[in-house]
Amino acid sequence: MPKSVMHATRAGQPLQPVGRRRFLQVASVATASTALLISGCNKDDDTPSAATVDLGSGDVGVLNYAYALEQLEAAFYAQIIATPYTGISAEEQAYFTSIAKHEAIHRDFFKAAITAAAPGNIIGSLTPDFSSVTFTDRSSVLSTAKTFEDLGVAAYNGAGKLLKNTDYLLLAGKIVSVEARHAAVIRDLINNGDFAADDVVDASTGLDKAMSVDEVLMAAQAFIKEKITATNVGK
Amino acid sequence: MNLFHLISQVEKLDPQAMDQLVSRRNIFTQLAGMSKKAALVAAPLLIGSAFNQVLAGNKDVPAVFNYALLLEYLEEDFYLQALAKPGLIPTGAPMNAIMQIKKHESAHVALLKGALGGAANPRPSSFNFGAAFDNYPTFLAFAQALEDTGVRAYKGKAGEIKEAGNPNDYLTVALQIHSVEARHAAHIRMMRRGAAGGGIMQAGWISNAEANGAPQVVYGPGNPATTFPSEGNTTQAGLNLVTALGTTYTAAEVSEAFDEALDEATVRSIAGPFIVA
Fold first, then answer.
1. B193 vs chain A: nearest CA distance in angstroms?
2. Pfam families per the record (chain B) (predicted)?
3. Which end of chain A has fewer CB atoms surrounding its CB within 10 Å, N or C?
4. Of B37 and A39, which is predicted with more confidence?
5. Do A112 and B258 touch (CB under 8 A)?
């Protein structure tokens, strides 16, 4: 998670200016002790409530879920390309250019595939909220990239079993390993050798993370302006 | 068919199928709740579909996991032999990375053996990797080939585990191994890029079907090629992504964005020569 999120979570209240709405999102993933704080803040939320986007049900819901995450990743890397961080090396620029293309391809692919399969059920374009990211700062960008890539891997790993159509499962498999490759490269940029470190690959089972839709959205929601609901994904 | 004989057979084959059977036994509760006439009509359907799933699970998933186990035995042994050769792997970051990868392959062996229980195939008596350990660059090229093959192999089996009813949520386990192999592959590829004396100009992902010194078959098509195209494939879900998305992307970029699966026979033809017996 980005540093600002960690701060806000640890202290139970924001140590640095973050938007009220964003703080609420952060607080919602914190421990139960902040529950009172959340209910106390809800009434005077100073941001107008954002639109709600429901991902839908069944396999299309899972595809929309992937589409939402790919939209987020694609927007993030596009911003890095548009405003590279201070001191970016030619090699890093090349990696980010490739990753930006891959994520944009994933996004556009899901848009085309869902439109073809279920034209009435595709979600619209989401509005990213990268206010917690300092795009001029290498460590802020890399740590956010690590969060997104590890989250993407865990999301696809957890969502595989929700897909009923094995063709979709194969497609998800084709994408998740590329996300894992990205995660490894980003992690190595932060610290060479962290590609599959013990914080992400369990040292005793050798397993990567798999997260439920709810767990993933809890983490991803902080970066998306619209409120995402996913009650029926895979059902 | 003798239902209770079947249950005891399944329990013997896979003790972990017990969890499933407990839920299968709910069928009888469901049946008990119906009128006698309705139950008589529904019974064959309910029981039939439930036990077909269990049977399929016990027929296919152990086979898939034994196939995965063979690949993990092979990878584990490959790194053990590499680590046992003095001076092959430079100390520091390269040695640490290979030890981390070896740790995961050993964990995968233990995990799959545990899942298979008595159905686990034994470790082959030995593996012969030929010239793989002659020098560091050759070792890394072999490692890349094994890891990229592993990624393709797991990917090729996800559907079968699903179709077998995903017993014990083994699909998720397979996916959790699959992405770790991809992390390994990416790092090995970067190690080759960063190798002393001029590395291979490649990234952590696979561009077109470029083998870069690894065997070309690792990146080529499987059988059938329509299901298992080469890593250079640019068509997904019937869409040619180079042209369908508005000609914004090159074939190389599209191929990098999707890894391709490989069928078991082709994977075995790649791995087979290393297995002595």
1. 11
2. Ferritin_2
3. C
4. B37
5. no
